[in-house]
Amino acid sequence: MHKHRKSRQISKELVVLRYLNARMTLLDQDWKNYFSLAKGFEGEVKFDQLTEKLESECIVINGLLLKVDNSFFQIDTVLIFQNTIYLIDVKNYEGDYEFQSKNLKHIKTDKIIKDPYIQLQRCETMFRQLLQELGFQFNVESHLIYINPEFTMYQAPQNPSVIFPTQINRFMQTLNKVPSKLNSGHEKLADLLISMDVGEYPFAAKPDYDYESLKKGIVDPSGHGFMVAVNDMKLKCCKCRFEETVESAVKRSVEEFKILFPERRVTTTEIYNWCKVVRSRRAITRILKKHFRLCGKGRFSYFV
């Protein structure tokens, strides 16, 4: 059976944009970036659901950002079989595109996207180099998967490495038929790759925002809308009707506050003002004391 060795992490960049989108109007470029990251992540998660069902013996690593000779490259999914490693890049594009020599053109909007297959080939070259440096010998195959059933590409060249929505089931069946027996060498390689994961691009663009201009309150976990109080113990989302305990919501809001404002101290007053919807300051203090460590004394105390 397959083994999942690394779960998919949502990037900090996407987390920040999701938080900000609920609390302010994003600039056009930030909104486009948010939409594209969210769409991409949704596609990757969809593919994860397919690899969950793999019955062949392989190791699945979800999401790696690696570095070779000062260059970064990202792989959505790595599948380690006995003799072959598959590198998978998942695209969640939607709509009708036309293939041009190095680009894809959206037929309705004329928007141009660089052909992701070119990027994938670069990743494959760098991955082979990395394997060589680590002293491993494997066949490496890379595949670009267009996962969205609403995607069509006209004039697409025949390329067995590119998998269209109608071919995904067959591709997964092919993977299931790969004869494979894993040993400790495969485990060692998987551990090495995971230990080399950089996590986040060090130079991701940061949107511009400040504390004063953000709308205060508790946003529901999916970012749909703000929570309102049902009673002293319970909140619900005014848009999607999601319900949550005050304790869980405050704890979430503290994590959000820490990510958006790492330079500000977590105090009862800060969190009371940030959450806005919780009527009792004492409830906030109680929740903070339960889940975080108190530092300092009196009005200079804060939580970590």
From TrEMBL:
It comes from the Bacteria. It comes from Neobacillus kokaensis. This is NERD domain-containing protein. InterPro entries: NERD. Residues 39-153 form the NERD domain.
